[in-house]
Amino acid sequence: MEYRENRGQTTFYARKNVVCPRFFTVFKRGTYIKQIMNSDITNCARCSFQVADRICRTDGGKHPDNCPTLLKAELAEEVLAEYQKTDNFEFARQASIQEKDGYSNRDQGYEKVRPAKPRIEEIIDFIAKMGYRKIGMAFCIGLRKEAGMVEKIFSSRGLEMVSAICKIGRVPKEALGLTDDEKISVGTFESMCNPILQAEVLNREKTEFNILLGLCVGHDSLFFKYAEAPCSVLAVKDRVTGHNPLAAVYTLDSYYRALK
């Protein structure tokens, strides 16, 4: 593979299919590739080593040049102190125990473990481990039926549920400066999604733990920003795939190849 550098930017020309360890990818024959040469940027998603061989899993393991386990060792030590704080220690400890409880056959070795519980059951288990009693749920109006079922599941276990729908407050979308052609249903009144109000309602009710169910992209971000209690996501919205966003990733080489 030929290459030249110019002001930190490298242009590659691949004469044949070739693996480039620096960028952890395969360059196909006859292609030009431009990438910024900055090996200090953390990008674990591009690590090419087998999971069992990685230094983040194995002492003395393999690693790329920009591996944060090596380059961010001082930061990792600083962060470790955060786990020792009272409000973090038990939460992190129980979360790790919950991770273990999500598998069966552990006595047969790592290669034999199997998933044991769906996410909703894991959330219920974690709530019990932490001793929470008052649970908040912020949900999308499009998943109102599912929200009703989830509320019953949690309430039947003696939990006090506080739920807030996305359209709470009936605030018109014009409050955000939206024009008529920026609405879903042109020419009609539409309530805006109100994740900040959802969060503040749950805050005023002093929920101990919040569950998100299908909030829109961006609206979920605002809820996280304003919610005071710790949060977990039961399901994310994906209107096309039945709320299974990884379906597009799983079919990236076929039906969703246009995403590449």
Q: What is the CATH topology descriptor of the largest domain?
A: Rossmann fold
The overall number of domains is: 2
Identify low-pLDDT runs. 1-19, 21-27, 29-38
Helix content: 25-40%
Mean pLDDT: 88
Q: Which class of the largest domain in CATH terms?
A: Alpha Beta
Describe this structure in words.
The chain is α/β, with parallel strands linked by helices and 260 residues long. The protein contains eight helices and eleven strands. A four-stranded parallel β-sheet has the order 9-8-10-11, with helices on both faces. A three-stranded antiparallel β-sheet has the order 1-2-5, with no helix packed on it. A two-stranded antiparallel sheet has the order 3-4. Strand 10 (209-213), helix 7 (219-226) and strand 11 (231-235) form a beta-alpha-beta unit. It is globular and about 60 Å long. It starts with a strand and ends in a 10-residue tail after the last helix.
Concise summary:
The chain has about 260 residues and is α/β, with parallel strands linked by helices.
Q: What topology emerges from the helices and strands here?
A:
Blueprint: E1 2-6, E2 9-13, E3 18-20, E4 25-27, E5 32-36, H1 68-71, H2 73-83, H3 86-101, E6 103-104, E7 114-115, H4 119-130, E8 134-139, H5 144-155, E9 160-165, H6 195-204, E10 209-213, H7 219-226, E11 231-235, H8 246-250
Helix pairs in contact: 3-4, 6-7
List keywords for this structure.
260 residues; alpha/beta; Rossmann fold; 2 domains; three-stranded antiparallel beta sheet; 8 helices; disordered N terminus
